[in-house]
Model the fold of this input.
Amino acid sequence: MSAEPTPFDPERFLRHPMGHGGALGLRYGAHGDDWCELVLPFDPRLIGDVDRGVLASGPIIAMLDMATSVAVWMKRGGFVPHATLDLRVDYLRPATAGRAVIGRGECYRITRSIAFVRGIAHDGDPGDPVAHVAGTFMHTGAQ
Amino acid sequence: MDGTLPPYADLLGITIEPGEGAPVLAMPFRDEVLGRPGFVHCGALAGLLEMAAITALRHALAQESRGDARIKPVNVTVDFMRGGREKYTYAQGKVGRLGTRIANVEAFAWQDDPDRPVAAARMNFLIR
Done:
């Protein structure tokens, strides 16, 4: 690896999210050694199905991308530059209109170049998720 | 819903380009879609690809006079091939198979050259 991970505090990093995370209203939830939880408050601007008042799937995939990304940095022991290689999301059921959605990402395996992640999104009960995610990130600073 | 996009598409700044066939969507580079400095957020690219897949499916359904059908995304797989830079990103969906209950749709996103995609998605939809 060309560079050591930079010390990283997810709560501070996510206190005032910039760019797309800020536009979505994403907030920090919690984190551990290899996981991170984010909160996507309900917002009518994020609706994808006007008839049912259901959130679009895009904001959920964006949140899961960010939650799993932070999970990789937790597992690597700090921030490293990386790029999302792929993400797969299964939409198990629509999120309940009006409820915040919680996204939990976990990094379960890292190699020199690749980090493997998985996670769920739920709207109150982790046992009844709205979506599952699996994906990989590539460490762009690795040789 | 050809020609109309949901609120989430407005948040991304997406507009529909005039033309024949499956709609081409255009997303400007703005702070709302920014990821790391100078690059489009992967989530915004995924959102754009999903919207392109949905509009392509709506277009195909309308051509079969099934415009009132309801569609539900079952899953999406997104591959990110290149960083999206500080410029417009375009996306277009392509319906692989349109059945009575399931549709398989691909979508590609590009910036300068459609043959050099920045990201691609495959989606499965349930149709009711």
The two ends of chain B are 15 Å apart (CA to CA). DSSP finds two helices and six strands in chain B. The mean pLDDT of chain B is 93.
